[in-house]
Amino acid sequence: MKLSYADRAKHCKNPLAKHLFQLIENKKTNLALSADVTNCDKLLSLANTIGPEISVLKTHIDILDDFTPSFINELQKLAEKHQFLIFEDRKFADIGNTVKHQYAGGIYQIAEWAHIVNAHTLPGSGVIQGLAEAGKDKQRGLLLLAQMSSANNLLTPDYSKKTLEMAREFDEFVIGFIAQTKLSDEPHWIYMTPGVQLSENKDNLGQQYITPQKAILENGSDIIIVGRGIIAAKDPVSEAQKYRKIAWDTYLQSLT
Length: 256
Ligand code: 5IU
What we know:
This protein has helices at residues 5-9, 15-27, 40-50, 69-82, 96-104, 126-135, 157-169, 212-218, 228-231, 236-255, and strands at residues 31-34, 56-59, 85-92, 116-119, 141-145, 174-178, 190-193, 201-202, 208-209, 223-226. It is of the alpha/beta class.
C-alpha cells in the first residue's frame, strides 16, 4: 500500500519536508513550476498567475538579467500569498567551505530566501555538511541530484545508490532527490522529477522528456517539475491547470 503525502509527513525528520508534504496534501497539487525566464517582472508575473496551481516554484536566480535584492521581497510576498515553496536550482558542486559561502553569501544570499536548494554529490559528503552549516538552523531543505534527465549524463546507477547512502547520513537536512525514478521505499524522501512534458519528447540540447503519468505512476515520483511545457504554452495558466490535474489524478491513482 502506498502512503499518502499526509502520512509521509509523519515520517520526516526535517521540518521543511514535513511542511512540504502537508502543503501538497492541503493544496492538492504535486506540480512544481520551473520559472526559467530572464526578467524579474516576467518571473513575478508567472509566480502570481501560476502560484495558485503549484506547491513549489523553481528558480535559477543567476539567469535574471535585471536582478535586484528587492526582487526577492516581491517573490517572497507571492510565495506567502499563494502558499508555495521557493526552490533555487543552484546545483552546488564544490567543497563544503566554498558551497557554504555560495549558499549564504554573495549577491544572492540564497539561504535567506530559498526554502529548498539542491547539490551534486560528486564532491563527497562535505558538500552536504557545508550547506547544512548555513541552512539547517534556518529550517531549509536540501535535495541531492541522484539522476538527471539529460542525454548521456554520467550519473550511473552506482552513483545514484551512493547518493542515497550519503542522504541517509544527513537525513535531518536532506529532504529527498532530484531523480527520474524512486530510489528506495523509505517514506520520508521526496522525489522531484524534471524533464516532464505531456508527450515523450526531446529538445535540441539534450533534454529528454517523460510524461507525468510515467514519472508518477511507473517511476514513483512525488512532484513533477515542468518548465517550457507550461511557460512556452500559448496560455500558461490553463496549461499549468492541465498539468496540475493530470499530476494529481495520477497520484490518486497511484494510491489505489
Ligand atoms: N533540470 C532538468 N533536468 C535535470 C535537472 C534539472 O531539466 O536532470 I537535475 C532543470 C533544468 C530546467 C528544468 O530548469 O529543470 C526543466 O525545464 P524544461 O521543462 O523547460 O525542460
